[in-house]
Design a protein that fits this description.
The structure holds 2 protein chains of 2 kinds. Chain A contains 6 helices and 5 strands. By secondary structure, chain A is an alpha/beta fold. In chain A, helix 1 crosses helix 6 and helix 2 runs parallel beside helix 3. The chains are: A alpha/beta, B alpha+beta.
Chain lengths: ~130, ~750
């Protein structure tokens, strides 16, 4: 993976989004812009509107929490599937979960839009690994 | 003078010529002018010596009448002798042919007839010459006549045919002139026959033959003679009839004897006991099996009163039933009585008693019975077995749609015979509506041979209570395979089914609880792990080199947040576990209205601030036996929920009502809040940490806790809601269940 242009985190846990934002900045670039959304609906809106305007070869990484009230990570995935290819082609999606249920992991890695499943917490090592990809 | 008398007359004349004035008696016939001879008697006297007479004087008078009478007497004597001889031989002879031959012989020898013959009908209805006395030539000619080997009309006009037709004697007093004698005239004349009489021989009024008498004397048969000969013939007829009757009687007797032997042998060898008793009840006969079964020798019971042998408890019934048929010939009744064995034991016997007093050959009550003590014993055992096992036995005569139920069946269905009606519909009427069609179909399938009859169904008693019955049965078929009878058993499995249902319920409950626990542990681990993961994340972040002090400060804040979160979750779990622990608090009468008043008072501030209305109606059920603290917590959480999720511009309005259900008490809790999208959240509604309204503060604990507590009290909770149309909870508590 070339160095991504954008990082987006969707997680209802405020503490978690703060932590991942700090870890990303620390492990990649202090001045990195990380877009955090505690409301999944806002996150979905941002992705759709923002990526429509960027070039197709730009790269955006999405860290998506699975277990959220009302709109879950899976619901967000469903919404992204319906978006235009131009948007989808720019996305690398990593599902995040503190879940220890194996069902979630297999469901995630079998989804065609999902790059990988990451067990919380996100660490600098994990970030560096995935960026190397 | 008749030539026959002339020699005697001349002799007499010569005798008196020898002596002057001598006289002699003389009988002679003189010819009348008309040619007939007249019998005369008189005296002839020699008057030759008398100068004035000088002649033989004959002095005579007509004696024809006297003479004829004399002749008749002789003839009559002869005929009487004939009849007498015939009758003697009738007594003497036992065989038809012998008798007839003798009769012919007597007619010649004693009756002094010139010829006599008898012809009898053979099996084909043709006359056959049985015996003949006289000229051979005549016999040949007669046989020709009888075989009708003659010109047509000859036989029909013959005296034989006449006698056959009329059934009365046919007389021909002059064979020379009678046209009926045409055919036999020549032979008659040559054998010296002048008169002919044919008498019919009868059996039971039917002409079966003829007896022909032939005399050399013309005009032989006058009225008297005909009468006598008819009589003689009738005597022969009678004798023949007697022979036949005797013969028939003998045959009949032989048949009777044969049948009797056969019957006797049947009786003597049959296992069944047969007795004959008089009208008064005295034993007249007993088959050998009586001795075999009951131990008495014939002498020990014959001429004894049958009543002495019956069990005292059965005797009144026997006498009653016997009296009922006493005056009805042929009537019988079936019985099951105990009969005394010689050794003092009572033997159960089953059979029939029939009134045969009117039967000439019997004139008694006929009893036909057999030992059923073994059956009785088996039945008793079976009944014991079925009774103790609660099994009812039924027997269905399919052809006549007639049922037999034993006592247990009636007990099982809690009806009497009249209500059942002993018909198929009487049974189906008792079946539970939902099981009826299936139960009937199973019977039909069994009858059709499609499946064995072994099934379960519910029945409904008169008191509307429902009972489970297990049934099995077998079908009996005739030689064509048609079902004619079905026998089966029913037994109550209500208790078994109740236990099964209870077990099923417990199992389902356990499965649900297990599922809940799984869910709980998953939720717990997830919710514990989320803050733990955050803490781990911050800890790692702080360990990085060249870390910005601002980041460390933020990390400490983040860690603190996560630790608090962790603490909250652990407290929640503690609360949940407490709610789930078996409540030791004793149940008490909880007044719904008091409960709501208590809750209202404790959150008076909130209610007033939010302008909440709580309307209650506990008129149907005011109280419930339950754990007060739990009910309090449940209703408190529900009210708080309603206040929390009210529509922005509409003050909360809560309605709580109670109802009585078949199983217990129901509470309906209704609000006018924002509601929940049930279609979307159905599976998660009562889940832990499930939140459906992110803009409203909450942990997703409320409904989970409510459900946990309701279930701990042994109740059930369900929800009905639409977005913006409020929520309606239904809480069901089973009676006195905890």
């Amino acid at each position: 993976m070339t160095k991504p242009d954008k990082f987006v985190i969707i997680d209802d846990d405020v503490t978690a989004t703060m932590l991942y934002s700090l870890i990303l900045k620390h492990s990649l670039d202090r001045n990195l812009v990380v877009h955090c959304f505690n409301d999944p609906a806002e996150g979905v809106n941002f992705i759709e509107n923002e990526l429509k305007q960027t070039e197709e070869n730009s790269q955006t990484v999405l860290f998506l929490d699975i277990d959220m009230p009302l709109i879950t990570g899976w619901d967000v995935l469903d919404l992204i599937v319906k978006m235009e290819d131009h948007v989808k082609n720019q996305l690398s999606i990593f599902m995040l979960s503190s879940s220890i249920a194996p069902a979630d992991k297999s469901r995630a890695i079998n989804h065609h839009l999902v790059a990988d499943f990451i067990e919380k917490p996100l660490t600098a090592e994990k970030v560096r690994d995935l960026v190397k990809l | 003078m008749h030539p026959d008398d002339l020699p005697v007359f001349i002799e007499n004349i010569q005798y008196i010529l020898q002596t002057a004035s001598s006289s002699i008696y003389n009988e002679h016939r003189l010819r009348h002018k008309n040619g007939n001879y007249v019998w005369c008697e008189g005296s002839i006297t020699n008057m030759l010596h008398e100068p004035n007479v000088n002649a033989i004087v004959s002095n005579f008078r007509d004696i024809t009448q006297r003479k004829k009478a004399e002749e008749k007497l002789i003839k009559a004597n002869r005929l009487y002798a004939f009849i007498s001889a015939i009758n003697k031989s009738i007594v003497h002879y036992k065989d038809e042919k012998e008798l007839l031959q003798k009769a012919c012989a007597i007619a010649i020898e004693i009756g002094k007839f010139k010829t006599a013959w008898i012809a009898m009908m053979n099996e084909e209805g043709k006359l056959e010459l049985v015996c003949f006395r006289g000229d051979n030539a005549l016999s040949v000619q007669i046989q020709k006549l009888l075989k009708e080997e003659v010109k047509s009309g000859v036989f029909e006009s013959s005296s034989v045919a006449k006698a056959l037709r009329a059934g009365t004697p046919a007389i021909s007093n002059n064979v020379l002139t009678d046209p009926a004698m045409n055919f036999l005239r020549k032979e008659f004349v040559s054998s010296g026959v002048s008169s002919n009489l044919v008498c019919p021989i009868k059996k039971s009024g039917q002409v079966v033959g003829i007896f022909s008498f032939n005399s050399e004397i013309m005009n032989f048969f006058d009225e008297a003679e005909i009468g006598l000969l008819e009589e003689a013939t009738e005597d022969v007829s009678f004798a023949l009839e007697v022979f036949e009757k005797e013969n028939r009687h003998q045959q009949a007797e032989e048949i009777i004897i044969k049948n009797e032997n056969r019957f006797r042998s049947l009786i003597e060898h049959s296992k069944d006991l047969k007795t004959l008793t008089s009208k008064e009840g005295v034993l007249i006969y007993g088959s050998p099996s009586v001795t075999h079964l009951l131990g008495y020798s014939t002498e020990e019971y014959i001429n004894k009163s049958a009543f002495d042998f019956f069990h005292p408890d059965d005797l009144p019934d026997l006498i009653k039933n016997r009296n009922l048929i006493l005056d009805i010939p042929g009537k019988s009744f079936e019985f099951q009585y105990r009969i005394l064995h010689k050794n003092g034991n009572w033997i159960w016997c089953q059979g029939t008693l029939t009134n045969m007093l009117h039967e000439p050959g019997i004139q008694a009550f006929v009893s036909n019975f057999q030992d059923i003590s073994k059956n009785r014993e088996l039945n008793k055992r079976l009944r014991l077995a079925t009774t103790s096992a609660g099994i009812g036995i039924w027997d269905w005569d399919i052809v006549n749609n007639h049922f037999h139920w034993d006592e247990r069946m009636y007990k099982l269905y809690q009806i009497d015979e009249k209500q059942f009606g002993l018909v198929f519909n009487g049974w189906t009427a008792r079946l539970h509506e939902e099981d009826r069609a299936q139960a009937i179909m199973q019977i039909q399938n069994a009858i059709l041979g499609m499946q064995e009859y072994n099934t379960e169904f519910r029945i409904v008693w008169n008191d509307r209570s429902v009972h489970y019955v297990q049934a099995s049965g077998i079908v009996e078929r005739d030689s064509k395979g048609t079902a004619i009878r079905m026998i089966g058993a029913n037994w109550d499995i209500t208790e078994k089914r109740r236990k099964e249902e209870e077990r099923e319920k417990i199992t389902a409950d356990l499965i649900q609880r297990n599922k809940n626990l799984e869910q709980f542990s998953y939720m717990v681990s997830h919710n514990l792990r989320a803050p733990v993961a955050n803490i781990l994340g911050f800890a790692e972040l702080m360990s990085y080199k060249n870390i910005n002090p601002d980041v460390i400060l933020e990390s400490v804040k983040g860690m603190s947040n996560a630790a608090h979160k962790l603490d909250t979750v652990i407290k929640d779990i503690n609360q949940i576990l407490q709610a789930k622990t078996i409540i030791s608090e004793s149940r008490e009468d909880v007044d719904f209205q008091h409960l709501i008043d208590d809750i209202s008072l404790s959150i008076d501030n909130i209610l007033k601030n939010k302008n909440v209305t709580i309307r209650t109606d506990f008129n149907n059920v005011g109280k419930i036996v339950s754990v007060k603290a739990y009910l309090h917590s449940i209703l408190y959480n529900m009210i708080i929920n309603s206040v929390k999720f009210h529509k922005p511009d509409v003050p909360p309005d809560i309605e709580i009502k109670s109802f009585r259900t078949t199983n217990g008490v129901q509470l309906i809790f209704k609000d006018n809040g924002i509601g929940i999208d049930l279609e979307r959240h159905q599976g998660n509604l009562f889940g832990l940490y499930k939140r459906f309204h992110p803009h409203i503060e909450g942990k997703g604990m409320g409904l989970f806790m409510i459900k946990t507590q309701v279930e701990t009290l042994g109740g059930k909770i369900s929800i009905n809601s639409e977005v913006n149309k409020g929520v309606e909870f239904t809480l069901d508590f089973e009676n006195n269940q905890l």
